[in-house]
Amino acid sequence: MTNEQDGKVVEYLLKVLVVGDLGVGKTSIIQRYVNGLFDREYKATIGVDFAYKLIPISKDKVVRLQLWDIAGQERYGNMTRVYYREAFGAMIVFDLSRPNTLDSVRKWKADIDAKVRLPDAKQTPIPVILLANKCDMVKNSINPAQLDAFCKENSIVKWFETSAKENINVEESCTHLVKTILEIESQVQPGPQHQGNELNLEEDKKSDGCSC
């Protein structure tokens, strides 16, 4: 899909969901990853918000990452089916200082699996990673074996201990998810009933840079 003759840069649009209970730090993680900033003043997301990041893959190929910041209360509404549409990966965030938010991860994962699938013949679930956020607030609170087992049990690709405040594993976790999606995309075949909604890593004909 790369046109080397005219030197154009091929861009791909990749939609990723960022979900989790209210106040777990979803917006802070996105702001740290996209803008390198951390805001101490908490502002609850209403409905859904968006952020963009341009990620170079090679000299002639980039990913335009579209992050959908889903409000914590939305899991109890009917709009998530609309928000999830055409997503190709997700991050579920929980708060290490509030253990009950880990209990909600199963419900978020079930909600995602029920409402969005990859557009392949097998309707494969989208890849999901788990972010154990605010590790700067709670030291030595993670049992790695327990979270490994939790991820295996719930078909979660991998977990990361993160802190938006201290910028711990934010870049690494997002990069891992993007690479996982690209690896899956290279292997899947579009399903026969997939009508026009081709893999959302579709070529972007515009090459004028990121709009963020």
How would you describe what is shown here?
It holds the Pfam family Ras. The small GTPases Rab are key regulators in vesicle trafficking. Its main location: membrane. With about 210 residues, this protein is α/β, with parallel strands linked by helices. It has helices at about 25-35, 80-85, 100-105, 105-115, 145-155, 170-185, and strands at about 10-20, 50-60, 60-70, 90-95, 130-135, 160, 205. The chain contains 6 helices and 7 strands. Strands 1, 2, 3, 4, 5, 6 and 7 form a 7-stranded mixed β-sheet that branches. Residues about 1-5 and about 190-210 have low confidence and may be disordered.
- Find the structural class using helix and strand composition: alpha/beta
Low-pLDDT runs of 5+ residues are: 1-5, 192-212
Bin the strand percentage: 15-25%
- Mean pLDDT, all residues: 82
Distance between the termini: 25 Å
Number of strands: 7
Shape: globular
Biggest sheet layout: 7 strands, mixed
Give the helix level as a range of percent.
25-40%
What sequence of helices (H) and strands (E) makes up the elements?
EHEEHEHHEHEHE
**How many alpha or pi helices?**
6
